[in-house]
Records
---
Amino acid sequence: MEAKVISKQDIKNWLESLAGKYEIIAPVTEDGVTRFRTVQDFSAIDLVPTPAAGSLRAVFTPETETLFEYELSGHAAEVKVSEAAVKDRLIFGARACDAAALKYVDAVYSNVEPVDTLYFNRRERTAIVGLFCSNPSWSCFCTEVGDFLTNPVGMDAYFTDIGDKLHAEALTPKGEELLSAPQFKPASEADAQAVEEVRKKALSRLPKPTDHAAASKSYDWDHPIWARLAEKCLGCGICAYLCPTCHCFDIQDCAMGSKGGRFRCWDTCQFEKFTLMGAGHNPRPSKKERTRQRVFHKFKYSPERYAVLGCVGCGRCIAACPVNIDIRRVLEELESQG
Amino acid sequence: MAETNDMEQGLRAKAKELLESGQVKVVIGYEAGSVPFKCAPLFAETPEEADRLVWNPTCVNNLAVYLPEAVKRGKVAVVLKPCDAGSIVELIKEHQIERDDVIAIVVGCPGVLSLDGLSEMDLGDIRSIEWRGNGIAVTTGAGEVTIPREKAFAGKCLSCQTGEPALADIKIGESPAREPLRDAYISLEEYEKMSPAERRAFWAKQFERCIRCYACRAVCPACYCSECFVDKAAQLWVSKSTDPTANWFFHMARAMHLAGRCIGCGECERVCPVRIQLSLLGKKVHIDVEDMFDYEPGADPEALPVLGSFEAKDPDPCPE
């Protein structure tokens, strides 16, 4: 399908035409925080520069999710297993980093039995329309870890802001279906040229690629940096909770009288109790082991296991870390000779 | 300000002296961050490392949070803003550190940066930030921009009285004397006009976005419990889920745990990734403690913890 354009003024009525079929999820800013939320009022959509504080993680794996509920009566129990998405969903304004992160989590969750049907059901029923980052943030480094900014993965269509309109490319049959709406017109040569300009400008602000996967083969388990990071790291968990590739969760039960249930909630290897065993042993007893784990999991174990790096360079951990632990500097130091 | 540069030099000299003489095992301070508008905590163990110490508007962290762990190494010196010094008072009062474990180096502070004040700038273009006049000067690729304090500084700085710090072994420089721009409790004025139902709705909306990352707890010098109540599983105090009841319980219980202990450093609010107005909650509890018990946390190392002691004059709202 050839490239299209949609006037910014037409976005609202395009989304409105989809609202019957899809639950529309887009970035919304409230009290200075931008997160992906279900929107009914499309004028509330805030396509902030990059990237929203919230990644797409919560859209596919909510912070808390009921797995099943039960009610006892006598010796019988009525169990209600949760279903995932009941409606098709459309994410509008996703970033290339966040979409690429979903492909990574797909790989992680596909690797096991039983299959995470809640997650994959949502994945199948969610279309994703991405938006090119015209104005990368100071903390963005996606081009260092992949080329998905210009060769997007994990999305159905990719839009680029070229002034009074958005340029639109379909990437999947679903994307083609979306772009066949009447609001989309064929893109002109001038439009294609404008996209090139926007791309060039953004890329000039971003770093060159580095093969961290290859470098990780010689990461030093005993490097002095781990003890130094452990000194200042607070173990707060913000890095993991904002990270689009992080996917670990805890499962907890709750019961009150004859009713109860099981839920899962986000968890992180940065918390002390994450690896605490029932008998009291903790293989990652201090922040030294836990900060090392974060770096090794994303940059070494992930490429080894899934042939995909576990970091998409969104930079949220860099921007949010209260003590300025900057993963780019950590990797530089780990990978420097001497 | 040439005077502020002198403070940085004075700080480095003093730190080197403390390390060279063996008086302390480590000096905890600030060093340049990975970008010009942030700093990072520094644990200097040698005079060479002490040369990396900085003192500038980006030095926002309350370094007292590191003390209970750090004093296990031996005697520690720590760089503190006058507001942060109150944290040390509380840690000593609660026997988390001994008075002799720590050398408090209090630096004169014109005010520290709030990144919100730079929101109109291209952060990626910033080269350096320093104090200038009543605010800051930011050098960018395009030149220099001065930003007045009401925009550049953290909220707490605008109501700072710059009085004597509660505790200081060494003082480097003096905080400039200036009129607070606003009352410390100005954010409470609007809040206190709200009815209980309105307050409930206000906090419900704030807590709805809490993702229970616990960054507020991790950055707080008063939150040093080896096992926090939220991490207890055997006796479950609060569900790990992010449902509204659980989030409410976490924040309100934490606010109660901090009653009479929080010195208002504002780090909790600074680090919250979803911008919950935690310092408003802290201030409200603070002012209630002040009204009820005539007690100021962080002021007097000799005072007993307010909720850990009883005086005959304590309010007794129960009717006879």
---
Amino acid sequence: MQDEPSGAALLDAARRALTEEVVPGLTGRPRYVALMVANALGIAARDITQAEFWRATAGRVVAGEPVETLIEAIRAGERDADPELHAALTAAAEVAAQIWKPAAPGT
Amino acid sequence: MDQDRLRIWLAGTLGCPDLAIADTRPLGGGSIQENRLVSCRVGDDVRAFVLRMDAAATIASSRTRAEEFRILEAVWNAGVRVPEPVAFCEDPEVIGAPFAVMGLVEGVGLGPRIAKDPSLGGDREQLAETLGRELAKIHAALDPRALPAGLAFLGAPEPDPTRAEIARLRASLDGIGVRRPAIEWGLRWGEVRAPACPAPTLVHRDFRTGNYMVDGSGLTAVLDWEFAGWGDPDQDLGWFCAACWRFGRPEREAGGVGSRAAFYRGYTSESGRTVDPARVAYWEVMAHVRWAVIALEQGARHVSGREFSLELALTGRMVPDLERAILRATAPAAWS
């Protein structure tokens, strides 16, 4: 059994502590850096919690082939306007973009 | 930095033997180049210069500082609002690397600040129009058939600059060993849909909010010429208007500062050329593709261990957001 809180939860707690307790007292470059650190902590936390989902959607893109083979086929024009590939790429990009920056609730 | 060697070089180059350096300090901005402010006393006068040199790591697609300086001279002579090109030092012994000296221009360059702070840039529609005019002047600054000797490094325009650009982007991805099917998809779409470019011009290739400066009344200078070369002029229009360069003001389609209509109006009034919205739309998609490749290159500088930078590391991670925009614009129906 994993110790509580989990790594992802700790990262999230660190991010909240930083943004709520440290950032308000900072100005200039230190404030900018602290906000970048908070951003990085948030990404790392979401990376952990969504890892499995991400692997599944990214797996659909390559469908068991090496990624190099897919890229060669795209460059050679063999997958032009391919609706299945477009759908799989879109699903993977949506998950990864949510890890980068989650959409505000209700949008 | 050896301030005395710099003082001797500046005094000799400018023909001011009594020149004294009052202050030097780093200037913010520029993840690829490093800028330094140098304030000098010449007799009773104070002159402020910006020294521009390579940062610790550069990315392969950017020009040398010497080439960038020659281009700056050409656009300065063509009347484009840029910092005054003062001198170039080839000798790496003076401060450790070759560097350009430019006149200091006052203003704010930070993209997010310009987009958010209404006290900057004067009337925003006028700013967008001015930027359109400046871009038209850039595109008319050089005739590829009558190139001054100092700009011979530009060579002749490629017969198909759009596909050449796509080949360069693929080479960049291969160079850093990055495999991103979504970006490959976008590059292939760009290849299939590439518009013809009958008349390549000088293009800035990084003309966007964040790469020019404004004061309270308007534009003070267009900066960052490190990617300039021959290309399709609509590439610059698309880069400027692309959604990824609006800094949280998506409704202001011209760089997050003004309306597209004002920007196009300024461009057309200076160039006499009507803007084709479909061609610009193509280049807006390609702007996302190119920015994604550059972001991956910047991320790779951190990942490779050559340069520690949280900023670069985070830039590398924003790529899925760009991929999502690329995929939305290149759905199967958009291929024919």
